[in-house]
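pls design
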């Protein structure tokens, strides 16, 4: 019995050690008209991309797609991806972390229809480490 408990403890400890070195497992959620989330809060030097998934509420008309922006704390756009599609409701984009400097970033998702712009942004900054 003691061997089984020690083996399980060792497996749990190793599993924690392996996953603690990768990007943080908790997703960052958004606020605003468009709901989305990132795949993690913190991206280590081993992370290859920042994945953003979300949905556009049915009450908004999507004629031209949505813009997904990666913005630094100075509010400068570091990278942007345009998701082109008429009447899309869900989206998934990936920002490669290769050329992104270490720091804190916000993700903004926006769509424009006529003279109206609907947007969402993260509740808190995500962190990129190198």
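designed seq:
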């Amino acid at each position: 019995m003691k061997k089984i408990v020690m083996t399980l403890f060792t497996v749990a400890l190793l599993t924690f050690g392996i996953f603690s070195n990768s990007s943080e497992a908790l997703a960052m959620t958004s606020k605003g008209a468009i709901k989305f989330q990132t795949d993690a809060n913190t991206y280590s030097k081993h992370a290859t991309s920042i994945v953003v998934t979300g949905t556009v509420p049915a009450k908004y008309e999507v004629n031209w797609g949505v813009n997904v922006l990666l913005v630094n704390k100075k509010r400068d756009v570091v990278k942007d991806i345009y998701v082109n599609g008429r009447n899309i409701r869900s989206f998934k984009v990936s920002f490669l972390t290769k050329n992104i400097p270490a720091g804190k970033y916000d993700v903004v998702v926006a769509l424009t229809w006529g003279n109206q712009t609907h947007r969402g942004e993260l509740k808190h900054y995500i962190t990129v480490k190198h």
